[in-house]
Amino acid sequence: MGQSRSDTSTRSHFSDWVRFGQRGTVAHNDPVEQEKDVKFTSLLASLVIFHNTLDIADAVRQLQAEGHVIDPLDLAQISPYLTEHINRFGAYSTHELGITPEDYDTRLDVDFSVLEDDQVPAAA
User: Fold this and answer.
1) Do residues 68 and 37 lie in contact, with contact meaning Cβ atoms separated by under 8 Å?
2) How many Å is the Cα radius of gyration of the chain?
3) Which of 103, 107, 101, 104 is nearest to 64 (CA)?
4) Surface-to-core class of residue 18, CB atoms within 10 Å of its CB (0-12 exposed, 13-18 middle, 19+ buried)
5) Among 6, 25, 96, 115, which residue's beta carbon has the most beta carbons within 10 A?
6) C-alpha span between 76 and 117 (Å, rounded)
7) pLDDT digits (tens, 9 = 90+) for 31-78
8) In Å, what is the CA distance from 70 to each residue of 59, 60, 105?
9) How far is residue 95's CA from residue 81's CA, in Å, rounded to a whole number?
10) pTM listed for this prediction
């Protein structure tokens, strides 16, 4: 399934937000350095999206454990392009870099079969 124009635009704006240090300008005239910059920005944006997705899945599992029923149409409205919780200028600890994280659970007990392309509202 391909990305719509609004999905691509959202991803682009999110990548721009992640790459805030140079205000969208290219710092080098060297094509190799430009390619590295683009790849690094894409990797960083993907990592933040992945982290957000894991957090959303954990929240859904917690709600289910509390007895809430999760409507897949509601869940389809949640975006992984969240930025409010990220402190780009914060002090980050590196003492946890050597700790191997637990395996993440890829299964989410929500019946998405009820969703079809024409049922999911377009993103605003």
Assistant:
1) no
2) 18
3) 107
4) buried
5) 115
6) 11
7) 888 888 888 888 988 988 998 999 999 999 999 999 999 999 998 889
8) 11, 7, 18
9) 27
10) 0.68
What tokens were used for 79? Answer: 């975006």
Rounded to 5 degrees, φ, ψ at 123 are: -65, 145
Measure CA 82 to chain center: 7
**Average pLDDT score over residue span 4-24:** 70
Choose among 122, 116, 105, 110: nearest CA to 72: 110
- Listed as own residue / partner, the contacts of 103-106 with beta carbons closer than 8 Å and 24 or more positions apart are 104/54, 105/57, 105/61
Structure tokens of 106? Answer: 């890829």
Asked if 43 contacts 70 with a C-beta cutoff of 8 angstroms, the reply is no
Q: Over the chain, what is the mean pLDDT?
A: 80
Q: Please give the single-letter amino acid code of residue 3.
A: Q
What is the DSSP-derived secondary structure letter of residue 100? P
Q: Is the pLDDT of residue 20 over 90?
A: no
